[in-house]
Each structure stands twice: as C-alpha cells, then as structure tokens.
Amino acid sequence: MAHAEHPVPVTARAKGPLCGRVRVPGDKSISHRAMIFGLLAIGETRITGLLEGEDVMRTAAAARALGAIVHHDGPGAWRVQGAGVGGLKQPEGLLDFGNAGTGSRLMMGVCGAHPITTTFDGDASLRKRPMRRILDPLELMGAVVVEQREGGRVPLTIRGPKEAVPITYRPPVASAQIKSAVLLAGLAAPGETTVIEAEATRDHTEKMLRHFGAEVTVTREGAHGRRVVLKGQPELQAAPIAVPADPSSAAFPLVAALIVPGSDILIESVMTNPLRSGLLATLREMGADITVESETNEGGESVATLRVRAGGLKGVTVPPERAPSMIDEYPVLAVAASFASGTTRMRGLQELRVKESDRLAAVEAGLKAAGVTCHIDGDDLVVEGGNGNVAGGGVAATHLDHRIAMSFLVMGLATQKPMQVDDGAMIATSFPSFIPLMNGLGAEIE
Ligand code: S3P
C-alpha cells in the first residue's frame, strides 16, 4: 500500500442538512495547461482563478526549470513570461511532479519534442503509473528514452530530437493526457500532427491551442470520436486565461448535498463543458434534484450555478462510452449509488485501475468497509444501494489518492456511524480548501 510520509487520518460524521453557497477552486486540467501554455508562449500570460493545489504547483516549478518566469500576484492570480516553442532551456535538476499524472505526462510531451534531456520523477503513486502510453508516440516523433523503470515508469529520462517528426496517432485508450502530450509535442514539429481518438475526451488542450493562436481543426470521427489536426511550429502568443471552477471538485459537495437528508445548497459557476459533464447526466438519470440557477461563460467555457437538493436516488446502468466525460467522478458516484434504491452498474471502468491509485479496487474496499454490498464484474463496478441507509463505521484506505479520500469523507456525512480515511494529506493536490468548504456548509469533517 502506498502511504504518505506522515499520514493524516480524517473522520466525517453525520450532523445535519448541508446548506449555503460555495464556489470550488479552479479546474485542475485547465490550470496545468495554463502554466504549460504560459511556458510555450511568447510574452506574458496572465492567469486568474488558478488552482493553487500541490499538483499545479509542481507544474509551475517545472515551467520555471524549463525557462519560464512565473510570478504569483495574489490568490489565483499568476503571470507567466514564456520561453516560446523551441526556446526551452535544459533544466538543471530532475522535474519532480509529486502526485501529478497530468502535469508529468503533458510536460513529457513538451520536453520530448525539444532538444533537451529531461528526467521526470514523482511520489510512490506516480511511480506506479504507466508512462509507456506517452513514451510510445514520443519515440515515433524522434524522442529517445534514455532511462526508465520497468514498463516505462518514472523516474525516467527523455532526450528530445533536434527537430520532432509530425505523426498521425490513434491513442490505444481514451485519454486526454495522451492526446495532449502528442499535440504539445506536435507544436515543435514541422507539418501536421494528427490525433484520432475513438472516444472524444476533454478538449481543453485544443481550445487553449486556438486561444494562443495555433491552427487546429477538429472533426468528428466515427460514432463518438474526434480527429484533431494541429499545424506545427506556430508562434504561440501569450493570452489571458480565466480558469473556471472544477466540475471534478464540485462533484464532492454536489453528491454530499444529494445524500445528506434535508440539504439544499448552491454551487457557483461550475464548468459545464459537455466533455466533463457525465456525472451530472448520470445523477439526473438517477433522479437527482439538480437545477441550473444561472448560466454564463467564463474564459471560453460555459459555467452554471447549480442548486442541489437532497432526495431519493435510484440505481442506473452507466454506459461505457460515458466514461471519458466522468472518468474522475466514479468514486463519488459509487458513494451516491450506495444511498440509492436498487442496483447501479458502472460499465467499462478499466482505466480506473491506473489512476492515482487502483480506484476500482480502492472504491470496492472502501464501500465494503462501510457495509455496502458491491462487486467488480470484469471492468464493471456493481453497487447495491441501501435506499438511504448505509452503516459506515469503517476506515477507507486512500492509497495516496485525493479523490478516494474526498469520496469516503462525503460518504461519512450520511452514514449511520462515522467514516474515517487513513490519510487526507493528498486532498491538497487538487482541493486544498475541501474540509473548510464542506464544514462551512454544515458538515463535520476533522
Ligand atoms: C486529465 C485527463 C484524465 C483525468 C485526469 C486529468 C487531463 O486522465 O483522469 O485527472 O487533464 O487531461 P486520462 O487522460 O489519463 O484519462
């Protein structure tokens, strides 16, 4: 089991209805990309609403090591003076990405296409995660993997070519990280780099490429896929970025309000990008009372203020093709399903095995520790709902995984006995204000 150096056990217990109005921090995916594009642009990129979690701070440190000048002006407000595509400097030491899969994989795309030699490392969780999926296309583009741990794991060292070769690539799994790594590498290549995905994944990289002046075309491919074509070697021009609130973080207060009887909360300005909205669609199918109070646009993304009221949920089957649009939300959906009436089957969850932890195993174990009947059937997770009644009283092992920790703390707000997580330290990677924000709504998490 992976452990933090100083595990911090945290307990959540039922106290009463949640009420109030909250805004969750900036989107993690967009925040990583904001730092990376700031590095690759010419001029000064001004960022507001940046998520100041540990993961994004690792990416900021890497951007500095690669030649960007990064200023912190105040809460969420940052300025990045870029080095420009082709202008990266050879970093002096290794790049330590901590727990951050997105930061490390996207930066591998950047560095693997530049004539520098870069060593990537991370914590015990990152050291277990597969990087071959990124190294394979980078090798096709001319990168040389000088050193790697078994199966392509960090610590690993990549030497980029003098000039990267443009490729057409079909990622073997639906992954925005693979797509983004190839596109970011394609910035340094002449000609067109193409990614063809069988299932559309989050499109933040494509949108930001356009926002910084690159030429990108996106067309439909098959029933659910996309073909993304990037014209290489653009001069990216710095552009302002307003980071909208993270729907993957909003998922925690949202599910908490659905399962704690009598709750009625507002969650402000949550990004509703359709490629990130699978959880909302699923919860609505389950009968959740979620209404849109107002809708607007922030930084090129639609955002909505959501009103969430507790109420009876019923079990559903979640189709596998929905997975890319809610990939990080399955742990907390499994918590919602535990309180529903009837069975919920979440299909096609193989990718959950290679997240910050093996989330399929961690969710199953945590649910069982709370007295929920559930099982893994191939790549599906099947949860028998307790119709509002879940015993709790157990300890969920978090395996250095922030979303496992937050999911089981949300669960403990509605179980008969409190739920404990063995370590809440990793919550700081994506949602440092999680505990005060939840307690401000009336939760008891300590
Ligand atoms: C992310 C993509 C997803 C997601 C991760 C963030 C991104 O990973 O799980 O938290 O910002 O591109 P995969 O692309 O590996 O599915």
TrEMBL record:
GO CC terms on record?
A: cytoplasm
Domain of life, per UniProt, equals: Bacteria
All copies of domain Enolpyruvate transferase, residue ranges: 14-436
Q: Which UniProt keywords apply?
A: Amino-acid biosynthesis, Aromatic amino acid biosynthesis, Cytoplasm, Transferase
Residues of the active site are 328
| Pfam families named among the record's database cross-references | EPSP_synthase
| Main subcellular location | cytoplasm
Q: What is its EC number?
A: 2.5.1.19
Binding, phosphoenolpyruvate: 28, 101, 129, 177, 359, 403
Can you say where in the cell this protein is located? Answer: Cytoplasm
Signal peptide per UniProt? none
Name a GO molecular-function annotation.
Answer: 3-phosphoshikimate 1-carboxyvinyltransferase activity
Q: Does the keyword Amino-acid biosynthesis apply?
A: yes
Q: Which HAMAP family match?
A: EPSP_synth (MF_00210)
Q: What is one process in the GO biological process aspect for this record?
A: chorismate biosynthetic process
Identify this protein by name: 3-phosphoshikimate 1-carboxyvinyltransferase
This chain's function reads: Catalyzes the transfer of the enolpyruvyl moiety of phosphoenolpyruvate (PEP) to the 5-hydroxyl of shikimate-3-phosphate (S3P) to produce enolpyruvyl shikimate-3-phosphate and inorganic phosphate.
Q: Which family does it belong to?
A: Belongs to the EPSP synthase family.
Binding residues for 3-phosphoshikimate: 28-29, 33, 175, 177, 328, 355
Partners and quaternary state?
Answer: Monomer.
* Pathway(s) per entry: Metabolic intermediate biosynthesis; chorismate biosynthesis; chorismate from D-erythrose 4-phosphate and phosphoenolpyruvate: step 6/7
Q: According to its UniProt record, which reaction does this protein catalyse?
A: 3-phosphoshikimate + phosphoenolpyruvate = 5-O-(1-carboxyvinyl)-3-phosphoshikimate + phosphate
The record's annotation in PANTHER family points to: AROM/DEHYDROQUINATE SYNTHASE (PTHR21090), PENTAFUNCTIONAL AROM POLYPEPTIDE (PTHR21090:SF5)
